[in-house]
Amino acid sequence: MGGVSLITVEALFLVVTAWLAVFAQSWFGGFRALTGAQLDVLPSLMVYAGLTGGLWSVGLLSFFAGMLLDSLSLNPLGVSVFPLFVVGWAVNANQELILRTERYAQCLLGIGAGALVPLLTLSVIVFLMGERVERPVVGWESLWRWLVMAVAGGVATPMIFLFGDLSRRMFLYEVAPENRFRGDREIKRWRV
Q1: Distance (Å, rounded) from C-alpha 164 to C-alpha 34?
Q2: Which of 17, 27, 114, 174 falls between 20 and 30 A from 37, CA-CA?
Q3: Cα(18)–Cα(67) distance, rounded to whole angstroms?
């Protein structure tokens, strides 16, 4: 019964971080009072899940975090799941092409995710929900909030990567490199 599985620790980290992030951003109103926009770190967490985990982690996180966020906001239940999954899936599908360890790449991915998730959420509310919900009010203030959320996503993403990599080093062991000699090979040592 070896060590702790990567999927278990990774899934636990993502779910606990999403839970803490959603409740912290709904409880703490200082950022909203200062900038007029709601801080949302879930797109940054989806970037982390897309780059470090598999599609299973992306799906689990998007469902759990989206439902939790919608249950604490005025959004219809389930509206945030699809936009979060799209961002995580896009990052996961292009995982080999992205410079995961570079901070500027993490920042740019965070800006993109922080800008894309609110647009997709608004699109889902307006186009897919139809007349069942009250249409959101979109104006010039919405553009300011969208820009603040994009920049906040760019700042939050490298911090999530630092915290995630630290927790990965704390809870998981590094895989030893494979020995270059075969196991059935005998090495004879001679003294001269």
Answers
A1: 28
A2: 17
A3: 11
Sequence letter at residue 22 = V
Domain boundaries, the chain: 6-171
- Nearest one of 59, 52, 38, 45 to 17, comparing CA atoms: 45
Query: Which amino acid, 75?
Result: N
Least Cα distance to 13 among 114, 159, 156, 160 occurs for 160
Give which of 150, 54, 55, 47 is closest to 99, Cα–Cα: 47
pLDDT tens sequence across 57-104: 899 999 999 999 999 888 888 999 999 999 999 999 999 888 888 999
Separation of alpha carbons 102 and 48, rounded Å: 13
The tens digit of pLDDT for each residue in 116-155 reads 999 999 888 888 776 666 666 778 888 999 999 999 999 9
What secondary structure letter does DSSP report for 77?
A: T
CA dist., res. 28 & res. 120, Å (int): 25
Number of H helices, E strands in the chain: 7, 0
- State the Rg of the chain over Cα: 21
Q: CA 134, CA 104: separation in Å to the nearest integer? A: 39
